[in-house]
Structure formats: structure tokens, C-alpha cells
RNA sequence: GGCCCCAUCGUCUAACGGUUAGGACAGGUGGUUCUCAUCCACCAAAUCCGGGUUCGAUUCCCGGUGGGGUCACCA
């Protein structure tokens, strides 16, 4: 049996974090077993269709590197298929036509609620004779097709939760074909998963209670049962199901804010799954290798941005510098900066960035001298006169350095430290004003690193500038 | 409310029935240091409660409590 999984979102918005994890697990599982991962769009509710949602979903999946081998299939283009299968159920007596109006159904529900009964269709149309049904259709009455739930109970196995049993008395006679001729999710999902050869249905746990009616259909059709795996939810900090209001939930928002796809995948994969052991950082290939449904957790996991931040920063610090270079470019806007310089900036500043967006202000500091308060130039253990004197000294020393020294930040560092030592100077007295002069900030990388990025000319310019500021 | 699912540090999690209950993030302290970040070291922090089963339960069973999901011609 070849493994085949699917990600089947409805086109009602953007891919959100929970959806990403579902897609990721389906992807990982398929890859792990050398199987196929396909994309299907569940667009059977015309009223909920959102313009552009399909494109957005596909685009985000692509940016996240979750490539599918088949699809996208659109359920709205498979209507005849669903009708064929619904008719099959109808003629076998597993389904029946229902002419009840929405108003009556609403009324019925109210009554049942008032009497504290479970809200289910009362089967008024179940025993309509063939003639009655034909008459009503002839009279132009609209109808739906309902699944007839048999007596007894329904049991199924879940790869994550084990065996689950639900009494059939709890299951409603589900509408399979709506009055608009579209199938409901329940019919479409069963028919498509069978027709498309899906072997493993991996999706959110909100579907658990719907499985029994699906199982009843599988049995009625005589389809082979797939393996079910229901994932725990990704939660808000207050343990409710992850939603907007409590932070971003759209994957593209995170991408646009400068989170790396690799970090996002890594973080989300480990929300509810752990390969055992203390490791935290995994490439997508390593995740594929390690993935195992039996190691997926049963309980919901809170989406913790703090940990995602840590992981994203870790990726920024450790990925190949050339890869980082390309990732950062889109976040620089219209900034003019030579690639060579940008690369140096990244080498120096990557330990200070949490997201790719952080590099914009970090890089701007190098392309343009930032304004700052001259007071900042004064080292806490020194005074204005000393700051000025130390800067003058460094300027003189740097002026006489060969240009090639600036090719190597470590060499530059050792030369300047030599200068401090030989002159019997204090490091803080020299380095603090120098660093503030170069960065324009009290918090920055070391003066050697900054000088290395700026080059001799710009370094001297900023140092002289600082002296001028101090003396005016 | 009915039904279903779930339950280890604040958070993500590890632990064939036998561990000082481990790791990571966040938090705290200290080191490195001109500052910030990184890095390093250390500290604090959990088995929801009650019964069983067992020589021994985080682990198995039952009950309670708590949380979540679902009860549409939405997915």
C-alpha cells in the first residue's frame, strides 16, 4: 500500500498556524513513507467562499516548502461525482430525501433544546413513500438527501488516540446533498478520500465527532477504511483554540514579519510532536526522518511566540551567510547597500536579530550616520575632555594604519588593543567613545567590527564628526 | 446540557511500572566584556485530586475535578 495523505482546507481565508501544522504533518508523514501528499480545496459552501483564498493558501504552502504532488483538486468541480454516490446511497436505502423546510428544522431544534433533548432531525421524511417523494419533486418542492444512521454504535481507531466508540443515537441523519445541489463536507470528504486513494487522514481533532457518520458511509459504500489521526489543537495562551485577537495566526504574517520558513516549520512541528530526546533543532529532512504518528501528543499545545522568537534567532545566527543574505534583502526596502557591505553587516549583527525585519535598522546604521546625543560619547568613568582626547588619539592612530588592516576585523582589533596597551590607556576610555561615535548608539557591536564594516574612510569621518560634536 | 477527547515546571516537552522526574523557552544570578547581543556556568520551577492494582505508580484501572471539541442544508 502506497501512503497518500492530503491537506484539505476550505478557502475561507489564509493559511493559519494550525493549518500549517496539519499540512506539515501530512507532508512529513507522506515523505517519511515515500508516499504522496496532495492538496484538495473543500469549497462546497458557496456562501463562505473568500476571493483569493485559494491563491493565498497555495502561495503560502509554497513559501513554506510544503510541495504537493497532486492537486489542487476543487470539490466544486466534482459535483456530478457526489450526486452519483448520493444516488447510490439513496437506492440502497442508506439515505433518503427530506423535504423539511429550514424553518421547520429551526422550530424542531428549539423544541428539543427547550426539552433538553439532543438536537436531531426527527426523521419525518424517512417514511415517505416513493410516490409521495415523486409527487413532491413534481410539485417543485426542494429537498436534501440525508444519511440514514443505523441503530447501534460506531467504533473506529485513531492512530493518535486509540479506539473511540460513539453510540449511534448521538448521530444526526446528516444532510449529504444540500438544496443548492452541493454536497456537504461529509459526503464530499468520504467520496474524495476514497476516490483519491487517501490512506491516512491526518487533521484537527475538531473532526473526531464527525468520524462515526463517515464510518457509516464507508460501510454503506463498501469502501476500504483509511487510517484516521486526529491532531490536538494549537492554542492561544489562555488555552482556547488558536484565533485572531490574541496575536497573529496567519502564516504569511509571520513570514512577512521576518520569520524563516525553516524556523516556523521546526517550531510548529515540535508543537505536539517530539521524536524523543533533547534535540530542538531539526531540518525538514530530519523531521521527515523522525516523524512518527504514534509520537504525536494527545493534548493541545499553546503557541508560544517567545520560543518561536528564540528558534528564529537561532536560525538567523546559524544558517549559511549567503542564504541569510538573500532572505534579508526583501526586508531592506529601498535601502542602498552593497552586497559586500551587507554581508559584513550580517556577520556582525546576526546575533542581535530576532527576525529578518530587525536587520533594516541594524543595516541603516552602517549606510547612514545616525544622529545621537554627544553626551553619549562620554564613558561613565571619564569626562568630556577625556572623550575628546581619546578620540583624537584613535583618529591619529587609525590614519596611519595601512588600508589592508581594514580587511580583517580581528587584525584591526589586535592593532587597536596594542595601541591602547602601549599608550597605557584604559580600554573603556578609548573604546566606549569610539564605539558610540561609529554606531551612534550606546548599545552596539564592538568598535572593531563596526569599523571593519565601515572601512577606513567612513570610520575616520565618523570619528572626526564625534570630536566636532563634543567641541561645539 | 448530551456525547467525545485530553491532563508532567509559567510554556513546549522527555521519562519498557523502579530516575535526585531530564531537556528547551521564558524568568533570576554570576562569568566573559567598552556597551548590547551572543556564549558559558549556576538558581528557581511540575507529575490536577481521590481511590484502587502492585513489593513499587508520572506511567495501569475506576471515580472526581478542570480544560477542550462537537451537537448546521459551515468546513
How would you summarize the topology of this molecule?
Blueprint lengths: L3 E4 L9 H16 L3 E6 L11 H11 L6 E5 L4 H13 L3 E4 L3 H13 L15 H9 L5 E4 L5 E6 L3 E6 L7 E3 L7 H11 L4 E5 L6 H11 L5 E5 L2 E2 L15 H6 L4 H9 L14 H7 L10 E2 L2 H14 L2 H8 L10 H11 L9 H9 L16 H16 L9 H14 L4 H13 L7 H24 L2
Parallel strand pairs: 1-2, 2-3, 9-10, 11-12
Antiparallel strand pairs: 4-5, 5-8, 6-7
This protein binds one RNA strand of 75 nucleotides through helix 4, strand 7, strand 8, helix 6 and strand 12.
State the main characteristics.
single chain; 472 residues; mainly alpha; Rossmann fold; Glutamyl-tRNA Synthetase, domain 3; Helicase, Ruva Protein, domain 3; 4 domains; three-stranded parallel β-sheet; 18 helices; 12 strands; RNA-binding
What would you say this structure looks like, in words?
- The structure is a single chain.
- The protein is mainly α and 472 residues long.
- The protein has four domains: 160 residues, HUPs (Rossmann fold, 3-Layer(aba) Sandwich), CATH 3.40.50; 98 residues, Glutamyl-tRNA Synthetase, domain 3, CATH 3.90.800; 49 residues, Helicase, Ruva Protein, domain 3, CATH 1.10.8; 97 residues, Arc Repressor Mutant, subunit A.
- The chain is 46% helix and 11% strand.
- The radius of gyration is 32 Å and the shape is elongated.
- The mean pLDDT is 94.
- The protein binds one RNA strand of 75 nucleotides through helix 4, strand 7, strand 8, helix 6 and strand 12.
